[in-house]
Amino acid sequence: QVQLVESGGGLVQAGGSLRLSCAASGRTFGGYTMGWFRQAPGKEREFVAAIIWSTGAKYYADSVKGRFTISRDNAKNTVYLQMNNLQPEDTAVYYCAARAGGYYEYASRYGYWGQGTQVTVSS
């Protein structure tokens, strides 16, 4: 059973940084794509970033390119999202997700989800 546990959210001022972690367990993830999504109040869940576990190939939403970095630590089975220069529009619940297979930016393609972690950016 795949389990994903996020941590690292919090309150930060605009221009600040946070690093989110997603601890993955339950299987080996060599054939998986790991994604980060976010959902703000009243909005649909949107793609933020993804990484293919085996190759390390990375994908980003245009809104976060140059500010966010996704990475993974094979030894710790953990995926990270380093978020720099945070802005109020980045405020949302951030979710870690996993899917068997290649990259998609659509949340519906991901079968496993964490519980989410709140990120709040004040202006």
What does it look like?
- With 123 residues, the chain is mainly β.
- It has strands at 3-7, 10-13, 18-25, 32-39, 46-52, 58-60, 68-73, 78-83, 92-100, 112-113, 117-122.
- Strand 4 (32-39) and strand 5 (46-52) form a beta hairpin.
- The model has no long low-confidence stretch (mean pLDDT 97).
Distance between the termini: 40 Å
Number of strands: 11
**Uncertain runs with pLDDT below 50, 5 residues or more?**
none
Can you write the helix and strand succession as a string?
A: EEEEEEEEEEE
Structural class: mainly beta
Mind sketching the topology for me?
Elements: E1 3-7, E2 10-13, E3 18-25, E4 32-39, E5 46-52, E6 58-60, E7 68-73, E8 78-83, E9 92-100, E10 112-113, E11 117-122
Parallel strand pairs: 2-11
Antiparallel strand pairs: 1-3, 3-8, 4-5, 4-9, 5-6, 7-8, 9-10, 9-11
Give a brief outline of the structure:
The protein is mainly beta.
Task: From the structure above, extract its key features.
mainly beta, seven-stranded mixed sheet
